[in-house]
Structure formats: C-alpha cells, structure tokens
Design brief:
Layout lengths: L1 E7 L6 H4 L11 H5 L10 H4 L5 E4 L11 H9 L3 E4 L4 H9 L3 E4 L1 H6 L5 E5 L4 E4 L2 E4 L5 H9 L2 H10 L2
Parallel strand pairs: 1-2, 2-3, 3-4
Antiparallel strand pairs: 1-5, 5-6, 6-7
Helix pairs in contact: 7-8
C-alpha cells in the first residue's frame, strides 16, 4: 500500500519540465538530480515533497525526450507513484524500469486535487481518496517483481544471482 500527498499537474507535462535539459550532462548523482525535479513547473516542489508523495497529472505525462533523469529525479525526490490519464510510452516504461509506479486512471486523475491524501493498493488496482475509490488495471506479477526490486537493473541482478 502506498500513501502520500498529491501534487496535481495538467496535460502534456514533458520530460524537460520534469527534469530540465540543462542538467542532463552535468549532474550524474540521483540525489542531486532530485533537487531539480519540476523546478520550472513548480519551484516549490522539492521543498514540499515528502517520501511517498504522489504526482497526479492529465494526459501524456512524460512526453518529449526519453531521458531517464525525468524519472530518476522524481523517484529520488521521494515520489512513490504517478497517477495520470495517460503516459508517453517511453516514460511509462522508464518508470517501471526504475521502480517508480505509473498508474493510468482517468477518473482518479480528474477527481484528485493537490494536497489530497491518496492511497494506492497496487496489487488490488485500487486508489482511495476522500472516501472515494477508483479502479485501475493491476500490474502483472512480472512487472510487480521489477518494481518491488527497485527497477529492472536490480531485478536483473537478482535473477542472474539466482541462476
């Protein structure tokens, strides 16, 4: 179960807004990347985000370039999940590959407001907020293994170690 405060944003939030391109080749440390997450969209985000918090967005979250820093910066800032109406395909997969939970749920995205406390039961495919519940398609057991391992790299290390 995931529980956190919602930060709500709109449609077409691109990777350059999530993690500014000016840092892509100069910052390599994930903790340092986290200090710049969403700085052009929400300058107070990194001051206010806490471990476990959840981003809620509209359509096409993560569009733009395929930079992984746009996932890494949010994860290391403390974001546990992103609920959106839809994701850019590459961003969605980058979330899974890095152990950040991407949830597609239009109804929840429309309903949730910034500051709401949101609970996500990833295994049951349920989102709860303000005594209201929304459903989404749960992840397969394979995808959950990747997420639970902390991402594809850690999952692969685990699998190779056990072979």
């Amino acid at each position: 179960m995931i529980k956190g405060k919602a930060f709500k944003y709109g449609d077409n939030i691109n990777t350059d807004v999530i993690y500014p391109g000016k840092y892509v080749y100069t910052i390599m440390d994930p903790e340092e990347m986290a200090k710049h997450a969403l700085e052009d969209l929400d300058p107070d985000f990194v001051k206010n985000v806490e471990k476990g918090d959840i981003i809620v967005a509209g359509k096409n979250f993560g569009c733009g370039s395929s930079r992984e820093q746009a996932v890494t910066s949010l994860k290391y800032a403390g974001v546990s999940a992103i609920i959106a109406k839809s994701f850019a395909r590459i961003y969605y997969r980058n979330c899974i590959n890095n152990g950040l939970i991407p949830v597609i749920c239009k109804e929840a995205s429309d309903y949730i407001n910034s500051g709401d406390t949101v609970s996500i039961d990833v295994l049951k495919g349920k989102i709860s907020v303000n005594n209201k519940e929304f459903s989404f398609v749960p992840f397969s057991s394979f995808i959950m293994e990747i997420i639970d391992s902390g991402g594809l790299l850690e999952y692969t290390k685990k699998v190779i170690k056990n072979v």
